[in-house]
Amino acid sequence: MNWILQLLINAAILLLASKLMTTVKIRSFGTAVLVALVIGILNATIGALLRFPLNLFTFFLLSFFVRLIVLAIVIKIADKFFSGFEVASFTTAIILACIMSVAGSLVSYFLIGNTY
């Protein structure tokens, strides 16, 4: 049940970010839910494969930044899958990854009760 709530929260964060940022476009909340689902799946598969060698290369000292860069890459990959989701540049994807990471962590901590 927590993952459904987290998925809906991520979709809402994506939709809100698209309203605040002119370089991110999402057609509807349904598209945002599908994009959040695909980002989650890609982050769990491709993201894990990308994070390990990058963390190894940085001796695990820059783990937070590696996660942000990989999430931005995953966002750009998800951008290619949907016609109703558009991220203008990689810099925009990094900003969106920061927003999703911070907002998702705060919401998880306060609403869902997951403590990290």
TrEMBL record:
The chain crosses the membrane at residues 29-50, 57-78, 90-112. The keyword Membrane applies. InterPro entries: Phage_holin_4_2. It holds the Pfam family Phage_holin_4_2. Keywords: Membrane, Transmembrane, Transmembrane helix. PANTHER family: SLR0284 PROTEIN. This is Phage holin family protein.
